Hints:
One of its GO terms (biological process) is cell division. By secondary structure, the protein is of the alpha/beta class. It has 2 domains: 85 residues, Udp-n-acetylmuramoylalanyl-d-glutamate--2,6- Diaminopimelate Ligase, Chain: A, domain 1; 134 residues, Mur-like, catalytic domain (UDP-N-acetylmuramoyl-L-alanine:D-glutamate ligase, 3-Layer(aba) Sandwich), CATH 3.40.1190.10. Helices cover 27% and strands 17% of the residues. It has a 6-stranded parallel beta sheet, with helices on both faces. A 5-stranded mixed beta sheet has the order 2-7-6-5-4. Helix 6 packs parallel to helix 8. It is globular, with a radius of gyration of 21 Å. The relative contact order is 0.10.
Amino acid sequence: xxxxxxxxxxxxxxxxxxxxxxxxxxxxxxxxxxxxxxxxxxxxxxxxxxxxxxxxxxxxxxxxxxxxxxxxxxxxxxxxxxxxxxxxxxxxxxxxxxxxxxxxxxxxxxxxxxxxxxxxxxxxxxxxxxxxxxxxxxxxxxxxxxxxxxxxxxxxxxxxxxxxxxxxxxxxxxxxxxxxxxxxxxxxxxxxxxxxxxxxxxxxxxxxxxxxxxxxxxxxxxxxxxxxxxxxxxxxxxxxxxxxxxxxxxxxxxxxxxxxxxxxxxxxxxxxxxxxxxxxx
Length: 281
């Protein structure tokens, strides 16, 4: 993470410092939500869970080297103070901090969403971008209102590319995530039926995934995958003022790419992939 003093962080998240001996102390490590992952200079975000409450592990985090705790209530005592920044909502504060840090980066934010394949595609994109410079990407499937800020806050001044998954359990979720880490490039992998019960239908899933495209600044640099040109839930993206490029694994579609062979060429960037026979060029 970009090094920030506790005073700066408190101002960015609208928090109140508690038991902080030196407000100029800096957070130089990552923001973590698991006290076992704390390392010197970390900021520990104390989140309530279904079985445990992160506030109960605040002291352990400080003992492990965390600079302070981001908490919803004071976590120390008069005899054993624990430096903390107290906020009304820890998750919202993490999002606000992520937005502030990303705004200070000179990095290209690449965001992707879809009903399936996000994690593997994200990892592939990140591996390619690493050849061009320092790249940070979502660990595992940290793609919600908690995981995305954690991923974004691992970036620092040297980061050139930030590759982030954006997941959704309903309409408005991706729109919110995009306000935290405004993407410059977006990719919608597919519109499937995962979590269809939470959305209400496939068209609603498409609308939710389309929030990523709508969040992109002009000119919209996005790509999406639809199986056929007449797929109804893809229609809104086709009617956009600036058409969004699409591809498909099915033949006789505008851009048919049934597969790729081999791996990137060994030559220096830009890397190239070779489509399998029959694929569109």
